[in-house]
Design a protein that fits this description.
This protein is α+β, with helices and mostly antiparallel strands. The chain contains 8 helices and 12 strands. Strand 3 and strand 4 (78-85) form a beta hairpin. Helix 1 packs across helix 2. The chain is globular and about 65 Å long. The two termini are 32 Å apart.
């Protein structure tokens, strides 16, 4: 059996479709489509030096890697390599070759510290450890059965609060960018980010093919976004909230819960049957909100770190 690793061709739907298929098999809790893979490959910030990779076993795509630099961190020299292999084709060397190819590429760019998300399963963690990665913090994937689970009743916004959708900001999404940037800096994690590039946010977030402005809910106070729940969909049955947060001046009022409940109800009315989200395992306030909605943890990933000498 022969394993090779090559770059994804973003204009070849066979490549992008294979990448999305493998990611969905290995990590069914994250939304991925051929269109989203192509978009990420083309529109990721140039400083990220993003490089999606495919591993092929005797010509059949069996593994993927997302590789790049953490370009928006104040600490230089940080990179990431997230490897996923089709569960039906593990132990043929595809994962190891993807890791080696990614590490050589990142080292050539000057990266000295690499981060990788690894499913919290014995075989996956052992794989990471064999390649020199040590465990760091963890994060949970959560799932809610939108077709069957009862949602909390819709509530009227409190006085002075209005609910809108992301689509209401189609002409000028900058207010949502400012709120997203503020909440992002408060997200727990082991990589610091300086989230200041509006044009990059437009390309990577607002114009992303999975992003649904219609299902994104925004709580507005005094005419300005105060809390939001950003939605993505695969245009089939799956819906996910990729960020839910509240501006610092408005926390403690239940506005994030209000926005997320509104988004969930509209997603169910639109025919989506599965809802996914993710939280850092130390983000107890958001985990508590998601438990209140009925989400259950369906998998856990552990971030691993390797220092390149």
């Amino acid at each position: 059996m022969t394993v090779i690793v090559r770059d994804v061709r973003p204009d070849d739907r066979r490549d992008t479709g294979a990448f999305a298929r493998i990611r969905s098999l290995a990590l069914p809790y994250m939304l991925s489509t051929a269109e989203s893979v192509a978009h990420d490959a083309v529109h990721m910030h140039p400083d990220a030096r993003f490089r999606p990779l495919l591993a092929e076993l005797d010509g059949e795509p069996v593994g993927t890697a997302q590789v790049g630099l953490v370009h928006d961190s104040p600490q230089p020299g940080q990179g990431y390599v997230n490897v996923y292999v089709d569960p039906a084709h593990v132990r043929h060397g595809a994962g190891s070759l993807l890791v080696r190819t990614a590490e050589e590429y990142l080292a050539s760019l000057g990266a000295t510290r690499l981060f990788a998300w690894v499913l919290d399963e014995p075989a996956n963690r052992a794989f990471a450890e064999r390649h020199g990665y040590r465990a760091s913090r963890s994060a949970h994937f959560l799932r809610l059965d939108l077709a069957k689970a009862p949602l909390p009743p819709l509530q009227e916004p409190p006085p002075g609060v209005e609910l809108r959708t992301g689509a209401d900001y189609a002409d000028d999404p900058r207010p949502l960018f400012l709120l997203d940037a503020e909440t992002m800096t408060d997200e727990p994690g082991d990589i610091a980010h300086e989230f200041t590039d509006y044009e990059a946010w437009l390309a990577e977030t607002w114009n992303h093919p999975l992003f649904s402005p219609e299902l994104t809910s925004v709580a507005v106070v005094d005419g300005r976004p105060a809390a939001f729940s950003a939605a993505r969909t695969d245009e089939d049955t799956r819906y996910g909230t990729v960020m839910t947060g509240t501006g610092r001046a408005h926390r403690g009022r239940g506005l994030a819960k209000l926005a997320k409940n509104d988004s969930l109800h509209r997603a169910r009315a639109a025919g989506f049957t599965q809802a996914f989200t993710g939280n850092d395992s130390g983000n107890e306030p958001m985990l508590a909100i998601n438990r209140w909605f009925g989400y259950e943890i369906c998998a856990t990933e552990v971030r691993h770190v390797r220092e390149l000498l």
